[in-house]
């Protein structure tokens, strides 16, 4: 018996699940199935490779000595992955040794290097979740000069100390290649990194990474770097089970729905907002336009396990229901009696980003916290900003940030605005700017706590005191709304 650990970054709490080979078979099935769907919509992939930021995290043992690891790690270390067929979707620019490396920085660097050396073969750029992809682009921004030196002299940096990684990547790096180094340097030296992905990988036809739900905050950043190359959120997956795939891979990110595959687990659905009644229905009985929480029963021993995700039925593919991921059910901010979900926050921050646009700043990552140490308590948003153009200093315009606070508050739900405006039950919302790299430090912290780096998603609200300390240590400016909210209520 082996166990899977969930990342703990979407639901706020890390969990362990028993797992058997059926789970690994399901991953293999879903990888294969989604590639068939993608190749139905995009031509010319057969002879290309993927530069995909897959990697492993270190394995642990339970107190009684049983092995436990992240779901993705157990798959990459299994024979299901090792003995995969030679089909384009399984063909990567990086050798398996890079995927099996559990040092996040070494593996990301080597993925980038191998992907650049074979840039003309790359038809897809991907990662399990968009968070990893954005992190890889950040690493490229900080290390392209070093990567170019490696390519120019045909010598891998000495700090790549993982022996199997080093040997296999050195083979791919091959002889000195000054022409390629010059070409990459030329692109990276450009003042703007807008569209850097298609500039460096001109044959890339799409990006594959999950960017729905709480990860949607990264879509504008991804679009900036990818010049709107199609971005495909191809599946809905978790440590508990795989759920389904996106049958319309080229649809807009906000329209993505997942078609559930009933062979992966036995799915039932708990109707959300059913009052005192508990109404559980089978997959065939879900109704269009209703919100449900999936319950999972499967071969790994889960029985009517409540996922905690809230999904909306958006349609049917033939007769199979399709679901849009709406939010995590248990992630809420609350100061008084209002309930602000992760979906509410994401929408509000998306509105505020329009204000930021005018000042050439990009919001790289954010999280939130309900601060009740003040009277009255208030919402705090931690924002990491970056200048759109390379080498530009992040110039903060107080008016812009104060306006962002106001726009976020105006976009929040009616109950928030009533408690905030009348009776002063909620204080003015605050945006605290953090230094660049803070969200990387936050991720490192969660990884040291056992979260899997491949499955990492920035938590949309912070519950851990230690994580809060990391954010607080990096705050360099604070802004508050300075005017009253309008009380024009949306219905
Ligand atoms: P983990 O088991 O740690 O990888 O986390 C699984 C959780 O990630 C799910 O329960 C969802 O909350 C989230 N998740 C997985 N796939 C998607 C998706 N396609 N869209 C939105 N959220 C997702």
UniProtKB/TrEMBL annotation:
Keywords: Ligase. Residues 258-328 form the GH3 middle domain. The keyword Ligase applies. Pfam families: GH3, GH3_C, GH3_M. Residues 343-465 form the GH3 C-terminal domain. InterPro entries: GH3, GH3_C, GH3_M. GO terms for molecular function: ligase activity. Belongs to the IAA-amido conjugating enzyme family. PANTHER family: AUXIN-RESPONSIVE GH3 FAMILY PROTEIN, GH3 DOMAIN-CONTAINING PROTEIN. This is Auxin-responsive GH3 family protein. It comes from Arabidopsis thaliana (Mouse-ear cress).
């Amino acid at each position: 018996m082996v166990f899977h650990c969930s990342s703990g970054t979407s639901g706020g709490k890390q969990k362990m699940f028993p797992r058997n080979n059926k789970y690994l078979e399901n991953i293999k099935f879903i990888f294969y199935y989604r590639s068939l769907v993608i190749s139905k919509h995009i031509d010319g992939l057969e002879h290309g490779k993927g530069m995909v930021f897959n990697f492993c995290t270190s394995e642990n043992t339970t107190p009684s000595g049983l092995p436990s690891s992240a779901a993705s790690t157990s798959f990459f270390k299994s024979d299901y992955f090792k003995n995969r067929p030679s089909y384009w979707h399984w063909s990567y620019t990086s050798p398996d040794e890079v995927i099996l490396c559990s040092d996040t920085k070494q593996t990301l660097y080597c993925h980038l290097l191998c992907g650049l050396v074979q840039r003309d073969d790359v038809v897809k750029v991907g990662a399990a979740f968009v968070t990893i992809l954005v992190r890889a682009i950040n690493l490229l921004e900080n290390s392209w000069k070093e990567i170019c030196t490696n390519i120019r002299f045909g010598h891998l940096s000495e700090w790549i100390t993982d022996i199997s990684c080093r040997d296999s990547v050195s083979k791919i790096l091959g002889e000195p290649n000054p022409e390629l180094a010059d070409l990459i340097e030329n692109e990276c030296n450009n003042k703007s990194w807008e569209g850097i992905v298609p500039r460096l990988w001109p044959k890339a036809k799409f990006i594959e990474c999950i960017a729905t739900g709480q990860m949607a905050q990264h879509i504008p950043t991804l679009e900036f770097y990818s010049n709107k190359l199609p971005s495909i959120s191809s599946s809905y997956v978790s440590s508990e089970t795989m759920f389904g795939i996106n049958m319309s891979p080229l649809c807009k990110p906000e329209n993505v729905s997942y078609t559930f595959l009933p062979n992966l687990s036995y799915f039932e659905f708990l109707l959300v907002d059913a009052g005192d009644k508990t109404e559980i229905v089978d997959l065939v009985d879900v109704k269009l336009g209703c919100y449900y929480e999936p319950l999972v029963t499967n071969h790994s021993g889960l029985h009517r396990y409540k996922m905690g995700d809230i999904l909306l039925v958006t349609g049917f593919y033939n007769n199979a229901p399709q679901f849009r991921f709406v939010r995590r059910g248990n992630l809420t901010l609350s100061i008084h009696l209002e309930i602000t979900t992760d979906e509410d926050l994401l929408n509000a921050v998306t509105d505020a980003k329009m204000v930021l646009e005018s000042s050439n700043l990009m919001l790289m990552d954010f999280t939130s916290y309900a601060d009740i140490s003040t009277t009255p308590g208030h919402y705090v948003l931690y924002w990491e900003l970056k200048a759109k153009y390379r080498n530009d200093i992040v110039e903060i315009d107080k008016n812009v940030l104060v306006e962002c606070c106001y726009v976020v508050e105006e976009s929040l739900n009616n109950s928030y605005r009533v408690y905030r405006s009348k009776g002063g039950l909620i204080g003015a919302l605050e945006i605290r700017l953090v230094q660049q790299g803070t969200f990387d430090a936050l991720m490192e912290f969660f990884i040291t706590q056992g979260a899997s780096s491949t499955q990492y998603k920035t938590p949309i609200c912070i519950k851990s005191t230690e994580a809060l300390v990391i954010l607080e240590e990096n705050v360099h400016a604070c802004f508050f709304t300075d005017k009253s909210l309008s009380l024009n209520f949306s219905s």
